[in-house]
Specification:
- α1 packs antiparallel against α2 and α1 runs parallel beside α3 (44-76).
- Helix content is 81%, strand content 0%.
- The mean pLDDT is 81.
- The protein starts with a helix and ends with a helix.
- The protein contains four helices and no strands.
- With 85 residues, it is mainly α.
């Protein structure tokens, strides 16, 4: 397995999160598990790009978690009824 695969999986995961594509995320979960088990050796020149993508994925996940927490709180307070027409 090459670092190109790692990069591709990170890109596809970021795109699936942005699109809120749960089906794609489930498929990628298997790919991520394989990548994690593969013990890939990265070239120094490739590490920066992969780490940047990893950091972007972390930021998206953190923001998604915050957004979901707000939505859960709103749902818990029946805030949706306040916006009903």
């Amino acid at each position: 397995m090459t670092t190109d695969i790692v990069s591709k999986v990170l890109d596809e995961t970021i795109d699936a999160l942005i699109d809120l594509d749960a089906d794609k995320l489930q498929m990628l979960e298997e790919s991520i598990a394989l990548v994690a088990k593969s013990n890939i050796k990265c070239q120094e020149s490739e590490i920066c790009a992969i780490l940047a993508k990893q950091r972007l994925l972390e930021l998206i996940l953190q923001n998604s978690e915050s957004t979901l927490n707000v939505l859960n709180r709103m749902h818990g307070r029946n805030a949706g009824e306040q916006w009903a027409l």
